[in-house]
What we know:
three-stranded antiparallel β-sheet, 3 helices, 92 residues, 2 domains, alpha+beta, single chain
Amino acid sequence: MKCIYCQGDCIKTGKMKNVQGYQCKACNKTQQKRYNKTRISQEKYQEVHRLNNECCGISHIARLLYISKSSAQRVIIRMASKIQKLDFFSFS
């Protein structure tokens, strides 16, 4: 198996929850052949954005979209990191 980080060769390093683990010989990072966590769809991502703009709380967003609170919070933090700060003094 090839490393997803540096494309080096990986060796087996045991199992966790019946999933084989691998460790890269070059960068020593560990990885799995498959991951079980599902991603939030783009539609739900946009819904989180819309609901957040309408002043809905994290718990309310998670309940409406059937996602975890930590996933909703992670999406909101990711959106907030993309906001650029305006410099009002640079306008002439």
